[in-house]
Amino acid sequence: MDISEILKKLSDSFGVSSWEHNTYSIVEETLKEINSEIEISKRGTGSLVAKYGNGDKKIAFFAHIDEIGIAISKIVDKDFVRVEMVGGVDPRTLIAKRVIFKTEKGDKLGVIGMLAPHLQDKDKRGQSPSFDELFVDFSISGGTEGLNVGDIGVVEAKSKELENKTISGKAIDNRAGVVSIIKALDYLKKFKFDGTLYLSFNKGEEVGLVGAKGMAYDIHPDNAIIVDVTFAEDLPDNIETMKIGKGPAIGIGAAINKEVNKKLTDIAKNENIDHQIEVLPMGTGTETDVVQLTKNGVKTGLLSIPIYNMHSPVEVVNVNDIDLTAKLLALYAYEEGGNK
């Protein structure tokens, strides 16, 4: 399994919250190449779950597969529409971009323009626009005919391999996590595994942790590990900054089970897997926060992959960090899965 190629395919695919099904074919195809007999099913309101093994100990790896985007909120006239965000979209990332919308008649291209700096009022040049000031121009693709309020779109962006094993693209949050749990299965198949492993590719994290809630209740694993991304940019002086290329960040905090955290940390140290420690004193802002509360509680850990430029069309990740995350996950499943 080529991590870079799968990540680029997933990054380029259209999978805004509630439209995740467009990415599932890539996931299913890759899983079947790893193990042709793996059980794959769509569950709940639209998450995808793969099951490997039939042992007593149930372990689940969770990674949300949705991405942020925009939705048409008003059709203004024959050429222009207004939009609102789906998930945490900064309007500054949309200016002077091409955007693709899914419609009943197929994909439709629009442009979010920008007034030339020569024509801007001097007192407004330094101001950031709000969604109240953004319009999508469809005059370049036949106008607004065929569009409907509620149609979903994303910035048109093509993933690109950079230097030092890095990749830039949209939706690295959290397709990097998706690739890591798939690759973990690729590693795990080389071991004797006597437990049951669930890979849960969850919908709707960007709009309220939607998929993880239902899947955690449905699977109700003994132990769970959430895989998401984290900030690699400089943070305030009192917070340790996670670094790209230094391995996954193992979360520690109130929402994270101490046994799972210790197990992950011990494995990483014993197997010489580069890793970092991320302190999350209260909530994590990830699916960890809801999975741990399921039924009578689930022992839950968190691995985060550092990225640059989160929630933008040019997020950046190091492929080695994804690979190291996968190795750590596979060894965790092997040791916890009751191997004999």
From TrEMBL:
<keyword id="KW-0031">Aminopeptidase</keyword>
<keyword id="KW-0645">Protease</keyword>
<protein>
    <submittedName>
        <fullName>M42 family peptidase</fullName>
    </submittedName>
</protein>
<feature type="active site" description="Proton acceptor">
    <location>
        <position position="205"/>
    </location>
</feature>
<feature type="binding site">
    <location>
        <position position="173"/>
    </location>
    <ligand>
        <name>Zn(2+) 2</name>
    </ligand>
</feature>
<dbReference type="GO" id="GO:0006508">
    <property type="term" value="P:proteolysis"/>
</dbReference>
<comment type="similarity">
    <text>Belongs to the peptidase M42 family.</text>
</comment>
<dbReference type="GO" id="GO:0046872">
    <property type="term" value="F:metal ion binding"/>
</dbReference>
<keyword id="KW-0479">Metal-binding</keyword>
<feature type="binding site">
    <location>
        <position position="173"/>
    </location>
    <ligand>
        <name>Zn(2+) 1</name>
    </ligand>
</feature>
<dbReference type="Pfam" id="PF05343">
    <property type="entry name" value="Peptidase_M42"/>
</dbReference>
<feature type="binding site">
    <location>
        <position position="64"/>
    </location>
    <ligand>
        <name>Zn(2+) 1</name>
    </ligand>
</feature>
<dbReference type="InterPro" id="IPR023367">
    <property type="entry name" value="Peptidase_M42_dom2"/>
</dbReference>
<feature type="binding site">
    <location>
        <position position="206"/>
    </location>
    <ligand>
        <name>Zn(2+) 2</name>
    </ligand>
</feature>
<keyword id="KW-0378">Hydrolase</keyword>
<feature type="binding site">
    <location>
        <position position="228"/>
    </location>
    <ligand>
        <name>Zn(2+) 1</name>
    </ligand>
</feature>
<dbReference type="InterPro" id="IPR051464">
    <property type="entry name" value="Peptidase_M42_aminopept"/>
</dbReference>
<dbReference type="GO" id="GO:0004177">
    <property type="term" value="F:aminopeptidase activity"/>
</dbReference>
<feature type="binding site">
    <location>
        <position position="311"/>
    </location>
    <ligand>
        <name>Zn(2+) 2</name>
    </ligand>
</feature>
<dbReference type="InterPro" id="IPR008007">
    <property type="entry name" value="Peptidase_M42"/>
</dbReference>
